[in-house]
Amino acid sequence: GLIMKRRKPCRITGAKAGYGNLNVTEGVVSSSVLREKARAYGVSVTVFLSAVLLCAIHKEMRRSQRDVVLMVPVNLRKFFPSESMLNFFGWIEPGYQFPEGDYEFEDIVRTVDAFFKQELTREKLGSHMSMYMKLEQHPILRFVPLELKNPALILANQFAEKDVTAILSNVGVVDMPQEYRPYIQRFGVFISTPKLQLCVCSCGGVTSLCFSSAFAAPDVPRRFFRTLSDLGVPLTIVTNRNEEEPS
User: Fold this and answer.
1) 48, HSE (Cβ side, Cα atoms, 13 Å)
2) Tens of pLDDT along 20-66?
3) N or C: which end of the chain has fewer CB within 10 A?
4) What are phi and psi of 26, to 5 degrees?
């Protein structure tokens, strides 16, 4: 069900790829097919993919009875108009408390969709921003030298990362001038991470589902793409090890 006051989320475990190494796996799908599949469930593409990722992680980490929780960045410009060239985003943390027995994928989709609708409001996001602004304007922290503040913020971010299982970021549609489009097959976004991150972007009717993983085995990405294929979304998989035919 919908997570309000959640327990400690499960963590993806396994052998790491090694210092300075990342495993990357990219699934290439038709943007229109993906949109139609999400529309069949009555949700957005981001909600649909979040549900698929939650399901894939649970299937690989089934021995864990903890919640599976995602961090999903949110572009705040859609809620608070800004001309700033700097990053202006927040995040929400949808999750699911998987039962010990069987469950329906539709239940996960409905739960995630309800969480998105609950959290993605101007009021909710505004309250989060106010909390961060109060921290920034704290009378003591305002006078802390930047050399000390930055390491503290990095440390706080590391602690925050421990409260989520994985990250899903939908970059959206990448638009290019018409004269460049014949030379572009697709765009992919891969981000360095100490965990597992899925970045989604689309261009020219093609959507790239790009996994970056600090783990040696591609268990969760493989399960994610298998689940997506079972749901009726054909795809081609490309990795930094080899290229595979559509499954």
Assistant:
1) 20
2) 778 899 999 999 999 999 999 999 999 999 999 999 999 988 766 67
3) N
4) -125, 130
The one-character DSSP state at 78 is G
What is the C-alpha separation between 213 and 196, in angstroms, rounded?
4
SS3 51: helix
DSSP E strands in 68-121: the ranges are: 68-75, 89-92, 95-96
Q: Is the pTM of this model over 0.90?
A: no
pLDDT digit string (tens) for 71-120? Answer: 898 876 665 565 654 555 677 889 998 888 788 999 999 999 999 998 87
- C-alpha separations of 237 from 32, 193, 240, 247 in Å: 18, 21, 10, 8
Nearest to 105 by CA among 4, 224, 210: 224
